Inverse folding.
């Protein structure tokens, strides 16, 4: 079967990475993710925003893929054609063994100069010392070439998605037999449009999320399960009926 897995922050929650719409703590308690994840926020207070991303990057570097990441990757080994489309900026799908991973929102473990785009090695977003638990404000390094600040290599609100990843995601969704949406609030566009596109084309969509989202009632099936439990169930059902997505969803 041709499968696309569209993942969000919920798939990494069981690896200890807070989701975006969890209440923020510590220094960032008075913000929400959408107020930190913009170029305006960075320009207004670079140390606050850089410190937040440095803290998230150190958490990701110390985390391990969980059983859901491993089960997603294992779908390819089970004989399915698999494309992973992720909104996540971590690298846990890749470390879980997935090969074909499209990052719609960039990468957390990399940074670049906001002025000239320069990159340096080792990447300053991973520099020692790691931020303390709970994070800290930190002035971003200045670019040796142009003097502007380094910024995380993620897509901020108001910025375009990488066109090659987006085009490949749409093509994979158009070609798939089943779209599995896992661990996303389905609130952020254009990513939230991919399941709508699949549904319009008559492709079955499975939503795995312990909470109902705007997608849940529209999806072909909503499994109110965590990512690890939901992926284990999906793999087991696909092993029984590897060629019939609707029977997989019906159980
Ligand atoms: P959100 O934080 O909006 O949503 C996380 C979803 O994961 C929620 O619907 C939770 O119910 C669900 N969830 C929590 N624990 C789970 C678990 N153990 N198993 C499965 N699901 C679980 O994260 P995203 O939908 O990924 O964008 O957010 C989308 C985008 O908004 C992010 O990529 C980021 C953010 O701002 C940018 O940075 C551009």
């Amino acid at each position: 079967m041709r499968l696309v897995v569209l993942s969000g922050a919920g798939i990494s929650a069981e690896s200890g990475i807070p989701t975006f719409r969890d209440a923020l703590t510590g220094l960032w308690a008075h913000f929400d993710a959408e107020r930190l994840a913009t170029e305006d926020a960075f320009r207004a207070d670079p140390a606050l925003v850089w410190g937040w991303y440095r803290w998230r990057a150190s958490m990701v570097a110390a985390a391990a893929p969980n059983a859901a990441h491993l089960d997603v990757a294992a779908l390819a080994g089970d004989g399915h054609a698999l494309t992973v489309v992720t909104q996540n900026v971590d690298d846990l799908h890749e470390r879980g063994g997935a090969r074909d991973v499209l990052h719609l929102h960039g990468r957390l473990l990399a940074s670049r100069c906001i002025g000239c785009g320069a990159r340096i090695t080792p990447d300053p977003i991973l520099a020692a010392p790691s931020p303390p638990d709970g994070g800290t404000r930190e002035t971003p390094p200045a670019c040796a070439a142009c003097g502007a600040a380094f910024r995380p290599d993620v897509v901020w609100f108001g910025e375009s998605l990488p066109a090659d990843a987006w085009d490949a995601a749409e093509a994979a969704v158009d070609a798939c037999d089943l779209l599995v949406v896992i661990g996303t609030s389905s609130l952020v566009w254009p990513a939230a449009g991919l399941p709508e596109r699949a549904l319009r084309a008559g492709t079955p969509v499975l939503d795995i999320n312990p909470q109902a989202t705007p997608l849940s009632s529209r999806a072909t099936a909503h499994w109110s399960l965590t990512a690890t439990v939901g992926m284990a169930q999906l793999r087991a059902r696909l092993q029984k009926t590897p060629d019939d997505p609707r029977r997989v969803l019906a159980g």
